[in-house]
């Protein structure tokens, strides 16, 4: 210590006091500003898991390690800053005395080695980062630089200071070695070499210490004056931002969107008040304090920007610039907020006012003008000029919610949540959103799906299947015995390409003997698009409606797990992650996960490799949002496909452009995102592009079509779902797939594995009266009922449900009797009984062995049902009234005796049941046995159609003469469009509920539903047939067997004893007089009888069909007020959300 060193030390100490003061002043301002955000009390606990996660991300640098070079370089700088701070404080003493070191440990080998490594590591790390920044400088094409828009001045300042700190560590230590010696080769291996270049001088050591100290002090003073320099402040704030991250399990803020909150409470549509609560973020102070901390912590590194699909395709959105714009605006407005300024929703000052509400102008004038001007700026709007909005409208709506920004952010900033909050305000308060979303919201609210399709059409895809798919509330009334609910989703039910995935998954589950059911018309859109577009209350309405439906279904089997399988990642994410926020907790799996498990368990066995070159697109809501990356790839590997990954895959996968409600908006700026992704996909030279999302499939298909049109690749690259690949591998080369056996319930009911039944052989059957007894005997050994599918939808004669496949022309009528099981329980006929129908001679020459199912025929194992329940012997006298559709073609040529006891309208298949005729062909020649896939593309315009007999695929080459078609050529039993009208119950007919007393048709004309879009209007024949009195033949139930109760019935399986069967049906008036029905009636006569039967049975099922799809009143008298209808009188609680009083809840009928 000498005069020079004492002087140096004194100057350093005094200067540091000023620097520390400026720094702490900045910290205080920052804390006060962050505290102006909304409350969020969910961020503090649990303490230990949060602290553990913070330490993991800090020490292991898990977020930065995704970029290897940057990761290790940044780790060195970080450690040099934190541990180097001990060496930095040591410089205080060294400015006074060059020999100074920390007592106790300051002269140990370990300390000297640490000093050596920290100095070298800091210099190496910061030099590497400097080089990387220069290599990625925006002087290259701007949008290729992740640093585009970042503040280079602040970055250069920080880099220089860090470099000086690292060099200071090295030179102070080297100077001490040069002056005092004591070098050790193990701990001073580098600095001892530098010391050889330096003179021995204590003053020199103090000068080096002063430089090291003052570089840090200047840094503190500068950042204290610039609290928006996140590149510097993240050294402190990043620890807190990581600790307070949204997910306390360590995950990123993806998956569920953050609920809409105000003042720390979650808002719901019943209690929210726009005059009191903040609906989303319309002002900077509407963000939570964690949002402000996010803005403060942003380092401007640009990793989010480099991964953003919007930015990379020329859109104005950069996640980095969005966050920094909010930060700059917030801190510029902070003086106004800290002074107590506040504006109401109309922009009037309500903060700085006196007791009478008068503005305190003197206090306003004391606020800096810049802050007052900033307070006048809108948060979202047109951003032109200095007084424009902070965030441009196009910027806000360009986001696809893909989550790439959140996934890559090294300091856990929650970009997507902030964007959704701003959208909420624009939608709920400003009503300022892209015009395309108006149609989306209307369709979701009125129809329950984004396309505005009718809910009855949700089950049309079932009509195209040759396997039984039970619909809850129509075919079955309990979840008991089922393992999964198959949530089809809107796209899976309506969109043609997505329906292929739906059918593939259903068939695979059937092959694997997975017991599942669907909700059918009970499904409503899950609300993902509404929530991501900012319409939070519409999401809540849709969610509450679905949760009510799901809980009602799962309550029928309380001992079973609430398991749901979905094909859409958006449904997967919403049902699994977001519904728990509003009270719905279920076990949700994506179909790729379930199918992969079935393959591993050998329940699905690929028999032939696909051997196609494919590439796979990771859906954002399956991959990044839910971390499902392996299951689809394992499935593709099992299928034998040759996978080539795109450059961007896995957690860095490129978005298809459909998320964040962008599916429903046009792209008008820059390149289309799906085209950019398709360019990457085609670069792998694939034959197929696989994905696991219906939205992705639509976007990629459109992109492939656009990119390959007019090229040699046109129509050569197919986009498909992973499920289709595995289905192709499972059944390729095996035209006859042995089904797993629907509804055997081996796993859930504790029974043995399904056993294939022997081949059904045609046996002559002379006495139809013995049929119920035989059916009962066939199942007498079953002591535990299996889940059974009912014979229909609760409409007359088991006729095809609304929205089902087109009715077959030329179909014969249904039997007038219903066919519900009688007390005493005659079960459904087995395959043997089914084959013994009098006209079953057509089942010739197929020789399908064992329990293998004929193509299109009902499955073995007891799952299949006759097109109606077994009829009693007393019904034999009435069987001449009508004829089965399945006999129509044969009857015109062979005049075979009519089949007795079938309660299903001719040609009309039960929902989810196998199509009559085994192969379920459309009008046209029957398919030969070697064709496993029925063609379902022909239309009902072919009046010369031929319908096969049940369980019969023979005589494929014969084409019987066409029966004359009378009237409107609507097949017997197939409901005419709009003909959902109740009829008078027959005397003695069993009723599902004594409380429901439908009026006779003769007394009150039936009301006809409005025809939906794309459907023909109700035809004249339907009008005439339904308005006439029904035949006197009693209706005997809804053909729902076993324990499954009729829709609306109070007691499952209950059916009244059948009345005397002598009654013959009376002719129904038609445009042409019709004689007494003969054993082989003409199609027109069959149609009339079917219509009469239908109206009678609709009356029984009235509780299940009281509302039409478009919300019309029940056709069976006056219905009680719908509990889902908002109040007509009084102020609506949904204030200003576009939901008028009396408006139906979304999707409800």
TrEMBL record:
It comes from Williamsia marianensis. GO terms for molecular function: 4 iron, 4 sulfur cluster binding; metal ion binding; oxidoreductase activity. PROSITE patterns: 4FE4S_FER_1 (PS00198), 4FE4S_FER_2 (PS51379). Residues 754-1149 are annotated as: Disordered. Residues 770-781, 860-898, 916-934, 942-953, 980-990, 1014-1029, 1050-1061, 1083-1109 have a biased composition (Low complexity). PANTHER family: IRON-SULFUR-BINDING OXIDOREDUCTASE FADF-RELATED, IRON-SULFUR-BINDING OXIDOREDUCTASE FADF-RELATED-RELATED. Residues 789-808 have a biased composition (Gly residues). It comes from the Bacteria. Keywords: 4Fe-4S, Iron, Iron-sulfur, Membrane, Metal-binding, Oxidoreductase, Transmembrane, Transmembrane helix. Residues 758-769 have a biased composition (Basic and acidic residues). InterPro entries: 4Fe4S_Fe-S-bd (IPR017896), 4Fe4S_Fe_S_CS (IPR017900), Cys_rich_dom (IPR004017), HdrC_iron-sulfur_subunit (IPR051460), Helical_ferredxn (IPR009051). The chain crosses the membrane at residues 6-28, 72-89, 109-132, 153-172. This is Fe-S oxidoreductase. SUPFAM superfamilies: alpha-helical ferredoxin.
